Amino acid sequence: MIDNHKWVACWGNATSITDRREAFYAKDLTLRYPIQMPFDGTQLRFRFSNLTGTEPVTLNKVFVNHTPITFNGEKTVLLMPGTETDSDAVSIAVTSGDIIEVSMYLADYTQMNSGTLITGPLSKGYYAYGDYAESDELPLDLSRRTNWFYFLNTIDVLTSDRCRAVVCYGDSITAQSWPDYLAQKLLGTDVAVIRRAVSGTRILRQYDCITYQAYGLKGATRFPIEMRVSGATDVIIQHGINDIIHPVGTDVNPFRPWSDLPTVEEMAHGVEDIYVNPAKAMGLRVWSGTLLPIEGWRTYNEQREQMRQQFNEWLRSSSIFDGCIDFDAAVRDASNPKAFAPGYDSGDHLHPSERAYEAMADATIARIF
Known about the structure:
five-stranded antiparallel beta sheet
């Protein structure tokens, strides 16, 4: 007996400001994103975002596989700047493990301002010059892969009451692979993993210059928007390292003053006020995630390391959380806790290797599932 009558988010990403380059308009372009379904369902609905755009964006055609996605019955949608738009429900049966393809065609000059860079084994997109939204395949000579996800923000599935969503909230660590590994390991269960992550973001600050606009919105702006997640029961917060490592002084970088460096107490208050209290008000369980090692990073010093250690101790011990996922313990070197374990550093001494990202997913499963 089919009991699919609950909407649950089955895929999601944050929407942020794209990297400001010489050209950021597209024309006559098809975007295609393959998405893995975490569980069975009978209908889908889609949210498209122009949250950080400053101009209207027209999606001339939007398809899931070969089925049109409509908006109040219309096949074309205008995404107004600063807004997010939900589609009509689409009747399409999906099974856990299925790959659906969401395709968009942009006919006229389009501001590509709303999008986020994400990576991982499940996070691979494509673009092609020309209108191929309805085509089975994109032409090899006119298409390339991309990890920039434009406009597509959230997918919900009408599914069983048993199903639920867990939100992974953070910065570049979470914009990279560990949520994908977590989703792969949870495939076949009743849990979907929703990623809300933007590289470079901080809890308490944001950049308003074009040099660093892609580093995204501050926590107080992001969190209320990104936590619109149907069927969510939990949120994992792994955020704060950029608050610690970014400030260097205006003599080094005019956009990174020392006044941006918070105290550990300010960071803790920010997490409680901006993240934990609102999440609890939504009825969610809230899990802290400790900050990873940074020894060897280009702005590393003992003051920043001490801040990281103090903040991690608060994340581990504070009673405001439902529990802590100790990512730091999962990836650090036992003989030198300031650094990654051998094979767990991607090479820049800030971002983990793929092996370490998988260890983060394992630590999450061991703690909360």
